[in-house]
Amino acid sequence: MHPTQRYRNVIYPLWKRVTAELLGTFGFLLFAFSGIAVAVLNPDIMGAVGIAAAFGIGLAMMIFAFGHVSGGHFNPAVTLGLAAGGQFPVKDIVAYWVAQIVGAFAAVGLATALWGEQVKAALVNQPTVSQGAAVVAEMVFVALFVIVISAVATDTAPWSGVMAPLAIGGFIFVAGIAVWPFTGGGFNPARALAPAVYATDWNDLWIYIVGPLAGGAIGGVIYWFMRETDPGETGELEEMASTQ
Fold first, then answer.
1. In this predicted structure, what is the pLDDT of residue 186?
2. pLDDT value of position 23
3. What is the pLDDT of residues 116-169, one digit of tens each?
C-alpha cells in the first residue's frame, strides 16, 4: 500500500521495509494465533468473534506500528495485488514475500512454544465446505480486501490515510466472522503456509495459496481500472522506483 509519502515524504530503503514486513507479520500473526490458542484452551472465553477480533485488531495495531515504513502488507496476496494494481514495485515482491513468510514461521513457532503443542493443529486452515467453494470464497474475499486497501491506503478518498489501519483491520474482523466457519478465514498465504509446515498437514494448503493470490491480483487489477488518477501526482510505484 501507499506507505509514506502522504505523511512524511520519505521512502524507506528496501532493507528497512523488509524488516518492517517481517516484524509486522510476526506481530499480527502472534496476536491471531494467540487468539486461536485461547479458543482451543478456554473455549468458554473465546469463540469465533473473539478470534476474528484477534486477527483484525492485531493487523490494525501492526499497521499503526509499521505501515508508515513498509506499507504494512503483512500478506503475500496483498503485495501481489498492489503490484498488479500498479501501486507497488514488481521488483520488490519476492523480498516482501520472504519477509512475510519468515515472520509467519516465527509467529507460529513462538505461539506453539508458549501455548503448547495442542494448539498446533488448530492453527492449520481447514475448510468445512468443498475445496471448490473454499478456494472461490478465499479468492473473492481477498479481492475485496485488496480493493478496500487500495481505496484507503493508496488513493485520495476522503477517508484514506490515517483511517487505513482501522478500515483494513475492520475488514478482516468482519470477513473473519463471515467466512471463518466455512474456510477458516485464511486470506493470507503466509498465515496458511507456516502452520501447515509445523503440523505437516498439506491436504488443503493449496486452497489458501491459490485462492488468496488469485484474489489479490484480481482485486488489484479491478481497482486499477476504477482508480481516479491525477496527472500531477505520482504513486508508490514511481516514488519507490525513483529512490532506488
1. 87
2. 98
3. 888 988 999 999 999 999 999 999 999 999 999 999 998 887 777 888 999 999
Question: Which domains occur in the chain, in start order?
Answer: 14-224 (1.20.1080.10)
Tell me what pLDDT residue 228 has. 61
- The per-residue DSSP string of the chain comes to ---STTTTS----HHHHHHHHHHHHHHHHHHHHHHHHHHHH-TTT--HHHHHHHHHHHHHHHHHHHHHHH----SHHHHHHHHHTTSS-GGGHHHHHHHHHHHHHHHHHHHHHHH-GGGTGGGS---SS-HHHHHHHHHHHHHHHHHHHHHHHTS--TT-STTHHHHHHHHHHHHHHHHHHHH-----HHHHHHHHHHHT--TTHHHHHHHHHHHHHHHHHHHHHH----TT---HHHHHHHT-
Place of cell 506499507: 71
What φ, ψ does residue 157 adopt, rounded to 5°?
-65, 150
Q: What average pLDDT does range 188-208 have in this prediction?
A: 95
Where do we find the cell 487468539?
Answer: 35
The label of the residue with cell 494448503 reads 205
For 151, the grid coordinates are 481505496
- pTM (predicted TM-score): 0.89
Neighbours of 22 (CB within 10 A): 22
Tell which residue, 136, 134, 111, has the closest CA to residue 123.
Answer: 111
How far apart CA 170 and CA 149 sit, in angstroms, is 11
Hey, what's the cell of 137?
Answer: 470464497
